[in-house]
Amino acid sequence: MALFPTKSRLAHIVFEHDDRASKTFDVVLLVAILLSVGIVILDSVKELHDAYGTYFYVLEWAFTILFTIEYGLRLWLSKRKLGYIFSFYGLVDLLAIIPTYLSIFFINTQFLVVIRSLRLLRVIMVLKLGRYLKDAEFLSDALRASRNKIQIFIASMITIVLIAGTVMYIVEGPESGFTSIPMSMYWAIVTLTTVGFGDITPLTPIGKLMASIIMLMGYGIIAVPTGIVTSEMTQAKSRRKLATARLCRKCEQLVMDKEAYFCKYCGEELPELK
């Protein structure tokens, strides 16, 4: 028995997720990613940085060296090295280690290692969550199907913001904080989304009336895209059900359950799914 795994076995452990060794590798990697991101978050708290900054610094470099070795290992094991380098995960893996090295030359760039949180996407593969992603697929289909409607909606919102910002700039002027049309448009966006920071406030009666109208419109703005996407999600779900539906040859009823072998209405054997 070899002391070290062969290159092909090592590649299987690193890139696949179907046996104990490969799953263990993925889980260890996942824990390391979570810990490294957690350390960066904690290090941004001044009190913790003052008390444990040195430990955080050492741990961050330890994780960076670990991820650098892992990146080099993936690159060495890849059959298509350029393909891995420029793939989504390859770029994320590279971006996960660069910030710490940049921190040698540039202040505060180490906090960019939160990019490592993107590597948590691997949890989908590690924990085999693919079977739970049907709802995400429905949402994705719905967003694609409603793309044109959403584009029209966004264009309408931009037009409203532009008009409202211009009108408020004319009505209120610099005296009320509306120093320019872009600043007035910023106010319109904040008001339209019902955030209302309060840093700019209309003072004239017409300005207050305009603000009231925009606030009321804001509630409708939340409902419109939600309704569009929800409608498309319902239709997408119906289409998927119909795609797996089978017509019973005896009673001519549609059976939606793709796992069924017999018609639930008459007991007739169902045709196989194509």
From TrEMBL:
TM ranges: 21-42, 54-73, 85-107, 150-171, 209-229
Cellular localization per UniProt: Membrane
One Pfam family named in its UniProt record: Ion_trans
GO MF annotations, alphabetized: voltage-gated potassium channel activity
Membrane association type: Multi-pass membrane protein
Classification via InterPro entries: Ion_trans_dom, VG_K_chnl, Volt_channel_dom_sf
Domain of life per record: Bacteria
GO biological process, alphabetically ordered: action potential
Main location: membrane
Domain Ion transport: 23-240
Protein name per the record: MlotiK1 channel
UniProt organism field: Cecembia lonarensis (strain CCUG 58316 / KCTC 22772 / LW9)
Source taxonomy: Bacteria, Pseudomonadati, Bacteroidota, Cytophagia, Cytophagales
